[in-house]
Amino acid sequence: MSRSKTAATATAAKSSTSTSKVAKRPTKAAGSTKKISPYNKFMKANLAEYKKKNPNVSHKEAFAGVAAMWKTAAENPKNAIAAK
């Protein structure tokens, strides 16, 4: 009987330690941030100004208006390539 208890204990010990572990993602170093794209910089700089000039426009319409401005903006890398 002692053998069956030991086997049962060993099996129980294996099942509790053999559970699958989820791999942890590496954490970012403190203070590290993702590089802001030229589009995001343009939107941040121009959206507030657009809303001041057009106070009755919804956020969605203002965002669309500034996005349309981006197509011809000098900050747009695609326009810089076309200018060369």
Automatic annotation (TrEMBL):
Region of interest (Disordered), ranges: 1-35
Alphabetized SUPFAM superfamilies for the sequence: HMG-box
Entry protein name: YABBY protein C-terminal domain-containing protein
Source species: Coemansia asiatica
Family matches, as InterPro entries: HMG_box_dom_sf (IPR036910), YABBY_C (IPR056775)
Domain YABBY protein C-terminal: 18-72
Source organism superkingdom: Eukaryota
Ranges of biased composition (kind: Low complexity): 1-21
One matching Pfam family: YABBY
